[in-house]
Amino acid sequence: MMPLMYYVGLSAIMFVLGIIGVLVRRNALVVFMSLELMFNAANLLFVAFSAYFQIITGQIFVFFVMTVAAAEVAVGLALMVEIFRTKHSIDLDQMSEMKG
Amino acid sequence: MHELTMNPIISLVPWVVFFPIIGLLLNLLFGRRWGEKGTGLVASLAAAASFALSAALAAQLARTPEAVTVHLLDWIKVGDFQVGWNFRVDTLAVTMMLVVSGVGTLIHIYAVGYMHSDVRHNGDPGRYTRFFVFFNLFIAAMLVLVTADNYLMLFVGWEGVGLCSYLLIGFWFEKGAEGIANARAAKKAFVVNRIGDFGLLVALFLLFWNFGSLDFKVIFEQAPALATAAPWVLTAVTLLMLLGVTGKSAQLPLYVWLPDAMAGPTPVSALIHAATMVTAGVYLIARSSPLYLQVPLAQSAVMWVGALTAFFAATIAVGQYDIKRVLAYSTISQLGFMVAAVGMGAFVAGMFHLVTHAFFKALLFLAAGSVILGMEHGQAHGQHSKGAHDEGSLDPQDMRYMGGLQGRMKLTFWVYLIGALALAGIAPLAGFFSKDEILLAALLKSPVVFAILLSSAFLTAFYMGRQIFMVFFGKPRSEAAAHAVENPPIITIPLAALAVLSILGGGLNLPGIYTLEHWLEHTLEYSLKVSFAVPVALASLLLALAGLLTAWWVYGRRVMPAVDGDPLTRSLGWLFRALHNKWWVDEVYHVLFVSSYQRLANFLASPFDTRVIDGIANGLGNVTVRAAAAFRRIESGFVRSYALVMLFGAAAILAFLIWR
Fold first, then answer.
1. Cβ neighbourhood burial of B118 (10 Å; 0-12, 13-18, 19+)
2. CB-based burial of residue B588 (10 Å sphere; 0-12 exposed, 13-18 middle, 19+ buried)?
């Protein structure tokens, strides 16, 4: 059995990669994928701790996160399609019409 | 006094207030449907019911003269502080109740006839009901005032009568010079009374602060202790009350509203501005006698205010041409007598003069109203017979256009004569005895005040004689006077009743018997006792006769020509002009207070409000706009920079949770 810290380390790396992806990329689709990476970093931690402490709750929580993430992606992609139709681009920095 | 042992008649006392209120509610709801007769009947019956109950209370008090408090309902209960609507039934309150409801009933009956003509003369018969609603409201408010058991309920009544006074002065609010004079007069009365009421209100605050209660009983019991502990409190309270009295009872320097109040219909002048409301100040001082007796300074202030007012107003009355204005200044002067009396500690004498004055001054005003109606009828007749005539514009209240009315209005003439002689202080009539008591008290207190009051008495006789000769003797000086007609019995019967009271009123407190003094003894712990002195009585009587004789010499000896001038204009010159112009007090007040107040208001309105106040408001707005402009740079619209900020935020919260 691998030590717990390996999982935590992997999860941290994934989370940081996700943050960097969200912050530096301008393509909305890539930003979405980075977000998914952050979700899954969290999911990995849930599952790892759940297995380590022998508590099933963490794994149940993961299912909820996955469903909510799926729903969020569905809404997000729908928005994205709509934005692409009007702007012919999904560059996030172009979507700044409500700035003060 | 416990509820159980309370006499059933005494416990009915709230009904003296309820009757007029029921009357006014009935008239408010059904007055239009019942017509003039029904309205007048309901209103008069309401006042008469109050009078009947007051008389029953008086009869009960004659058997057991102790003061009784009747609790009706709680009003304010805060901690230890309690104010209830309590009625105080004692000899002083019942005396006032009898005067208010008794004279009030007679004036109601008179008003049934008078207002019938007045609403037609002024061209709005629909206002008949409104008049009686206000009249009943006044009776109710005045009875609240005199039956109050604490200063707060007294203040409620005090303000209530002020409101009714305002409403009734402005009854023909669209009439008068430039269509605004009546409304102005009402406003003036209201504003001037506010100044006085401010004094009374502050006095109440001080009483509450120092006694923790506003009940008469509590305050009067603790007053001597406070007078030794903190004398300035009672001095301030009594002087501030005096300010209230100068407003309500039209004393120097706040008397200026009363002459203008004559803009109201004549029954209003008789009831409110002669017989009852304006005497509220005298009643207040008599009621607060335990406070005033602790403060000699306030007592002498009251005495001097009264005496100076008595003389000052009497001089102005000499120079007036308007029949009601003469009576108005006479009222101020007589109120000065009363205030001087209660200032001297002669509370009984003051109350005695209050009662007799209510009789004969109500009589004089109502008789003057009868004269005015007669003149108006004569005027209408003149216009009728001669077609359009330039006399249509003459003022039916101006004595210069009267003259010779004694033949045409016999009953009015006789009752007017009785009222004038009673006011002048001719021997067996009411005014002689009450004025004599005040003069005797003045002689005991201060010879200077005695001299002032004596000369006022002389002037009183003179201007009443002047009025009698100008109005009733000589030849008619206008078509209207020549065709004046006597009024119907509904007007003359109350006049006759008041004339009888004016003749017999002195019997209330005859020298030697002193009925009123023994009656009020149960309520007033102290009152300066005076004993009848023949020299003083003789002096005042002779002076009154001399005044009447002088008036005859000036106005009655020759037939006055039909010109505008007063014979005194030649002999007195500028002095008469000063009297006629009321010593220019209104003008001085206008320059000193009204116009400087208006300048202040203008200053506050145009530079101050537009610059300073608006500047603050607009400045605040500008600051907000600028701040918003600065902050909006943060809102760049770049989603990724928002995300970065969120990241920092989340990190900061986490760091806080970990390392706190």
1. buried
2. exposed
Record: contact B638-A22, CB cut-off 8 A: no
Nearest CA in chain B to A16: B647
In chain A, where the domains are located:
26-90
What pTM does this model have? 0.81
Fold of A26-90: Helix Hairpins (1.10.287)
Alpha carbon distance B67, B90 (integer Å)? 4
Instruction: Please give the full DSSP string across B181-198, using - where no structure is assigned.
Output: HHHHHHHHHHHHHHHHHH
Q: Give me the residues of A, 74-93, that contact B with CB < 8 A.
A: 92-93
**Cβ-Cβ contacts under 8 Å, B644 against chain A:** 23
CB-based contact B637 A98, cutoff 8 Å: yes
- B314, B329 contact by CB (below 8 A): yes
Number of other CB atoms surrounding residue B215 within 10 Å: 21
Is this complex scored with an ipTM above 0.90?
Answer: no
In sequence order, the β-bridge partners of residue B77 are B82
Distances in Å between the Cα of B481 and the Cα atoms of B277, B375, B395, B489 are: 32, 6, 11, 20
- Rounded to a whole number, what is the distance in Å from the CA of A79 to chain B's nearest CA? 15
pLDDT above 90 coverage of chain B, percent: 61
- Give the other-Cβ count within 10 Å of B140's Cβ: 26
